[in-house]
Each structure stands twice: as structure tokens, then as C-alpha cells.
Amino acid sequence: MVRILFFLVLGAVAWVAYKSWSGKPLSKKKDTPPLPGRNEEATILTCKHCGAFAPLTEGVMVEGRFYCSKEHAQASGERLGV
User: Fold this and answer.
1) Does residue 33 form part of some domain?
2) Is residue 22 part of a domain?
3) How many folded domains does the chain comprise?
4) Backbone angles phi, psi at 65, to 5 degrees
5) Domain carrying residue 64
6) Considering the entire predicted model, what is its pTM?
């Protein structure tokens, strides 16, 4: 009985080692493709001045801070390089 258990454990360890060295994942989880119509430009961010949500393409990014408009960036004391 002990020999059977030993060989079962040895087989399991060998299988896990083979899978890890072969580059194949142990689980069969598939990579999910990105949703259609989603991209970096469709990212919604929060304005640092008023807290409103706006798309990245419609707002202004100044030194890593997002504002929903140029007016709110200027109202927050940011200097915009025009």
C-alpha cells in the first residue's frame, strides 16, 4: 500500500514538474480577449477640480492630473502651455 502511494505521489510531482518546464499552464484558463469597442481612449477619469467623470479624450491631462476642461485646470492653478 505504501509503495502504491509513493508512486502516485512521485507521478504527481513529475507531472507538475513537466507542466512547469514545458511552459504550458497547469490550469486551462484561457486569456480573455478585450471587449469590442474598448480602448485606451475610452477611459473614464475623475476631474480633480469638480469630481465629474469625463472621457480621457474630452479632458485635459496636466502633470498626471486629469481635468474635465481647460477652465477647470486653470481654476485649480495649473499653468497650461499653449
Assistant:
1) no
2) no
3) 1
4) -110, 140
5) 41-82
6) 0.48
